[in-house]
Amino acid sequence: MCNYDPCNNGARVLELFDGAEQAIIIAPFITKKGMQPIVNALPKQAKLTVYTRWRPDEIAAGVSDPSIFFEMNQFASFYLQPRLHAKAYLVPGRGALVGSSNVTAMGLGWHGGSGIELLSATRADDPALGELVRFLDTCCSLATEQIAEEVLRQAQVFGRRRRGYLPVVFSEPAWLPKFAMPKILWRVYIEERDQSVTDLAKPDLDALELPDGMQEAEFQAYIGAALLQGLPGRIAEETKNLSTYQAIRKLEQIASRANIKIGDPENSWRTLCTWLAYFLPDMYRLAAGGRMLYG
Fold first, then answer.
1. Which of 232, 17, 41, 274 is CA-nearest to residue 140?
2. Each residue's pLDDT tens digit in the chain (295 positions)?
3. Which of 33, 53, 179, 292 could staple 105 via S-S, CB 3.0–4.6 A?
């Protein structure tokens, strides 16, 4: 049994994952140096499920690295939720570790100068952990090569200023945009629109928790990355290239699984599509009349 060393929790993760055929990782920050020892501990045929978040400011700051997706997508599935903060390592039928350690060299103690972290053992069928996984399954988007490439491109907008990562991006994990005119949001953000417009946009601005002082390109990239993850990203990928009727029914199904009540599904879908086409024009576009989302 490994010692409970708060500066070397990685040893316990490796013990848990050693030879496992199936494993789950939940962590907002994941880097190559943090992940590599774990990958080495798993059999080549292992199935790995990863829940994480890819925010361009954090990628630019070096605390997260979506490029690992390209090395691991043959055996690992990545799911994205921009409000994720939980950290857990789970092997079904064997056990789990939950606590504060991200999948980074510092978080797991792969080198000197590591953080002081906690990982506490619990059962693989711990009810709270099971509910967390079920919740993530309903409001995460599935990462793809295109999404990974887009988020890496968005991170370049923030440069390598190492100014630290910004506040958590969503005040609610199941957010969907409500303000129907995304092209006005920048002017609202820099306080160049009147109060009546600001009041209409406020629910979305509050939900996004936009940090102060961004340039317009950073603003565009920040919201674009948010739309690729969580519920917006999941709906986008599952409704693109469908007819309007099919897309709206699919949105209702996704919302129902996430236990979300949507008063006007058609309006919600059209508003989301408008945001996607505006903030992510290289990935999504609207057909004439806005009756189909192409991606």
1. 232
2. 457 888 889 999 999 999 999 999 999 999 999 999 999 999 989 999 999 999 888 898 888 999 999 999 889 999 999 989 999 999 999 999 999 999 999 999 987 667 889 999 999 999 999 999 999 999 999 999 999 999 999 999 886 544 444 444 444 667 899 999 999 999 999 999 999 999 999 889 888 878 788 899 999 999 999 999 999 999 999 999 999 999 999 999 999 998 888 989 999 999 999 999 999 999 999 886 667 888 8
3. 33
